[in-house]
From TrEMBL:
Domain NlpC/P60 span(s) in chain numbering: 149-271
Stated name of the protein: NlpC/P60 family protein
Keyword Isomerase included in the entry's annotation: no
Matches recorded under Pfam families: NLPC_P60, SH3_16
Keyword Protease: yes
Keyword entries, A-Z: Hydrolase, Protease, Thiol protease
Family: Belongs to the peptidase C40 family.
InterPro entries listed in its UniProt record: NLP_P60_dom, Papain-like_cys_pep_sf, PG_Endopeptidase_C40, SH3_16
């Protein structure tokens, strides 16, 4: 069983694993991320696997040393979050469609910003004061929000809005992102389900034959890497070559990655 998608902390398991593991079972407790960004780790205080954004829902399976073992609702990814990042936040009504925004202490451009939120964060809007939306955590510009269910029309445009974002292994935000994080953020903003890591993403969609021309939105996979096709000649990806989200010619990327020991393209998928 893949530990990333197996809801078993090593001590306690989700009821979905009945008869599969010898451990106490639980249905878990619902919770939400109540901070701008939370690292989802392989173990308490361990290495980061992925990140969850404000408003994302989880099911808590176990608790240990100030951390909670959770299942992420959006993709089933399992891991440990600091307990301080979780709470009983309200059901989100809106999501951040701008690359990033701030939560302000008052509905004014002169007000002090409290924290920054990344594209994809979710908030519950309680009311509006002109150009400002009120939430339990502060005020957000209405222009930076879309209602949940009103998704972006093109995942590639979402990825392009994150051009220049610094590369961060396991990152899922405007403040740092990796290749599979960029694909997941882009597809999720377009209302499409998407797993968290590139090897999982390789199983999505329809595999393309060698004779089929690349189309906008296709995914191109190497071992441990994924990129989005912009057009027949260009792709966009978060990469360690530029340490950022950047454009690269498809032929140039294939040649460069191969020359640097990254191997050949393993798959092309049309989502």
């Amino acid at each position: 069983m893949d530990r990333r998608t197996t809801p078993f902390s090593g001590r306690v398991a989700h009821v979905s694993l009945r008869d599969l593991v010898a451990a106490p079972l639980t249905e878990g407790e619902p919770a939400r991320v109540v901070v701008p960004l939370a690292d989802l780790r392989a173990a308490p205080d361990g290495a980061r696997d992925r990140q969850l954004l404000m408003g994302e829902a989880v099911t808590v399976i176990d608790r240990d040393r100030g951390h909670a073992f959770v299942i992420s609702e959006k993709d089933g990814y399992c891991g440990w979050l600091a307990e301080s990042t979780l709470g009983d936040g309200p059901e989100p009504t809106h999501w951040v469609m701008a690359p990033a925004t701030h939560l302000y202490e008052a509905p004014s451009v002169q007000a002090r910003e409290m924290v920054s939120l990344s594209l994809g964060s979710r908030v519950a809007v309680k009311g509006a004061w002109g150009a400002w939306a009120s939430t339990d955590f502060g005020y957000v510009p209405v222009a930076h929000l879309h209602p949940v269910g009103q998704w972006a029309p093109d995942p590639v445009l979402v990825a392009e809005s994150l051009l220049g974002t610094p590369y961060l292994w396991g990152g899922n935000s405007r403040f740092g992102i990796d290749c599979s994080g960029l694909v997941q953020v882009a597809l999720y903003a377009a209302g499409m389900a998407c797993p968290g890591d590139s090897d999982m993403q390789m199983a999505m969609g329809r595999g393309l034959g060698a004779e089929e021309q690349p189309k906008r939105g296709d995914l191109v996979f190497w071992k441990g890497h994924v990129a989005l096709v912009v057009n027949q000649d260009l792709l966009i990806h978060a990469n360690g070559h530029t340490m950022s989200v950047s454009y690269e010619g498809i032929r140039e990327a294939v040649a460069r990655i191969s020359a640097n020991g990254g191997g050949l393209v393993q798959a092309r998928q049309r989502v």
